[in-house]
Amino acid sequence: MSSLATAARRQLSQHGPALALAALLATSGTIHLVKPGVFRPLIPRSLGDPDPWVLGSGVAELACAGALAVPATRQVGGLASAALLVGVFPGNVTMAVRSRPDARSWAGKPAVAWARLPLQVPLVAWALAVARRAR
Predict the structure, then answer these.
(1) Which InterPro entries does the entry mention (predicted)?
(2) Are 29 and 56 in contact (CB under 8 A)?
C-alpha cells in the first residue's frame, strides 16, 4: 500500500466519525432554518411560539457541526452535540405523541416519529465518542 493511501486511511479513521456527525448536524441545522415548519410540531406547546425554538436549535446544530469539523474544538463540539441531542429529546417525544397517520410532514407520521426516539441513544453515544477521541 502506498504511503499516500496509508495517510488517507489514517486521516479518515481519525477524522471520519467527527466529520460524519458534523455533516448530519449541519444538514439538520440547515433544514431547521430553511424549512422550519417541519420541526414546529416538535416544540411542546408549554414553550410558546415554536419558531424561536426551531431556529435556535438549528443554529445550535450548525454551531456544533462547526465545532466538530475543527480538530481544535472537536472535544467541546462533541460534548455540546451530546448535550444538544439530549436537550431536543423531549421534542422528539412530543412529536411521537402528537404523530398522526394523516400528517402532512413526513416527520409527523407515527412510524417516523416513534422510530426517532431510540435513535437518540446511538447519536448521543456517537457524539460522546467523538469528544473522548478528541482528547
Answers:
(1) DoxX
(2) no
